[in-house]
């Protein structure tokens, strides 16, 4: 959970957008007006709260009727949509690849990801419902392909991506958590004392493709599991299962065989995929050797969070993965 205000912002939320309000209210005609291009704020009424997201609309998509992918990118702990956009660099890639990318705003800069974190967790904020409402609002104004809606995020945002994979697989085609494990309530299995996430807390309605990117030297959300070492107090449970255990849960949920193959090996990063799964989904893991709690190939974070890969570009890879795995 990256805890400092670390990257430059780019503005404040605008007043509630009337088209989004109409979409939430269920009134007709909200998608008939021309879609604006650039960075715009989408506001949604969800859970008796006014929620928001920064939506990047490439100019090449303005007023186009062809349906396009939507990527939701969830920020880290104490983050903002603007900082997340600077960290992941997905807006520039969205321009190249002709897709929409939205950066949702958490309550107090936090997400209720299951066992943490911060204000959203303490106040039991329903961020799953917010995500559903946000998808509806964006789809009401823009030509979103419902079979190509994807989720990524870092740290607390990655924990949220995992949760959405468990609880919103009816709307999301694939997830790509960066530096965050599955953090739904665990239980101790009777065999070898291994932590497992029970089906009751992660029961996707269908198999869902997962790309998990993680640095092996991450101490905030440790690669091997255990107590996270964070630079500031973070409300919530910070005892994490390992990356291997997270992947095992997803392989189980997706009905994957134990057979894997290497998909990428360059510089400090190696990726392996489990491709023999139900419904042609795939589970892939990219391990960044010596990588810290960072976004590989993305924006810089303070040195306390460890080394960042300069040879592996997580944003490029996750967009490739998303393109390969529609619903």
Note the main attributes of this structure.
327 residues, alpha/beta, ten-stranded mixed beta sheet, 24% strand, 14 strands, globular, 8 helices
Verbal overview:
The structure is a single chain. The chain has helices at residues 18-25, 81-88, 90-97, 118-122, 127-141, 156-167, 243-253, 314-324, and strands spanning 38-46, 49-57, 68-74, 100-104, 144-154, 174-178, 187-188, 195-196, 209-215, 226-227, 239-240, 261-266, 269-274, 283-288. It has 327 residues and is of the alpha/beta class. It has a ten-stranded mixed sheet with strand order 1-2-4-3-5-6-9-14-13-12, sandwiched between helices. A two-stranded antiparallel ribbon has the order 7-8. The chain is globular. It contains eight helices and 14 strands. The chain starts with 17 loop residues before the first helix and ends with a helix. Mean pLDDT is 87; it is low at 3-32 and 188-194. The longest helix has 15 residues, at 127-141. Strand 7 (187-188) and strand 8 form a beta hairpin.
What topology does this entry show?
Elements: H1 18-25, E1 38-46, E2 49-57, E3 68-74, H2 81-88, H3 90-97, E4 100-104, H4 118-122, H5 127-141, E5 144-154, H6 156-167, E6 174-178, E7 187-188, E8 195-196, E9 209-215, E10 226-227, E11 239-240, H7 243-253, E12 261-266, E13 269-274, E14 283-288, H8 314-324
Parallel strand pairs: 3-4, 3-5, 5-6, 6-9, 9-14
Antiparallel strand pairs: 1-2, 2-4, 7-8, 10-11, 12-13, 13-14
Question: Can you give me a brief rundown of this structure?
Answer:
This protein has helices at about 20-25, 80-90, 90-95, 120, 125-140, 155-165, 245-255, 315-325, and strands at about 40-45, 50-55, 70-75, 100-105, 145-155, 175-180, 185-190, 195, 210-215, 225, 240, 260-265, 270-275, 285-290. With about 325 residues, it is an alpha/beta fold. Helix 1 crosses helix 5.
């Amino acid at each position: 959970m990256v805890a400092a205000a670390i990257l430059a912002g780019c503005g404040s939320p605008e007043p509630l957008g009337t088209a989004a309000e109409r979409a939430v209210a269920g009134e007709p005609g909200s998608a008939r007006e021309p879609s604006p291009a650039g960075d715009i704020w989408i506001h949604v009424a969800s859970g008796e709260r006014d929620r928001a997201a920064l939506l990047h609309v490439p100019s090449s998509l303005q007023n186009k009727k062809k349906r396009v992918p939507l990527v939701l990118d969830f920020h880290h702990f104490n983050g903002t949509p603007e900082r997340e956009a600077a960290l992941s660099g997905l807006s520039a890639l969205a321009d190249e690849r002709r897709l929409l990318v939205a950066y949702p705003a958490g309550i107090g800069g936090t997400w209720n990801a299951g066992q943490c974190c911060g204000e959203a967790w303490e106040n039991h904020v329903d961020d799953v419902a917010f995500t559903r409402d946000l998808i509806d609002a964006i789809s009401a104004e823009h030509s979103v392909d419902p079979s190509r809606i994807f989720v990524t995020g870092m740290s607390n945002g990655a924990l949220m991506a995992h949760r959405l994979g468990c609880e919103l697989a009816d709307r999301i085609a694939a997830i790509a958590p960066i530096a965050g494990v599955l953090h739904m309530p665990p239980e101790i299995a009777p065999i070898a004392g291994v932590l497992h996430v029970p089906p009751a807390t992660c029961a996707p309605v269908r198999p869902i493709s997962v790309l998990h990117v993680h640095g092996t030297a991450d101490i905030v959300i440790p690669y091997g599991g255990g107590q996270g070492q964070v630079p500031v107090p973070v409300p919530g449970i910070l005892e994490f299962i390992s990356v291997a255990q997270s992947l095992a849960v997803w392989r189980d949920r997706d009905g994957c065989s134990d057979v894997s193959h290497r998909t990428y090996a360059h510089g400090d990063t190696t990726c392996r995929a489990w491709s023999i799964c139900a419904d042609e989904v795939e589970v892939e893991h990219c391990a960044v050797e010596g990588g810290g709690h960072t976004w590989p190939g993305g924006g810089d974070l303070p040195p306390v969070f460890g080394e960042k890969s300069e040879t592996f570009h997580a944003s490029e890879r996750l967009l490739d993965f998303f393109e390969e795995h529609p619903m």
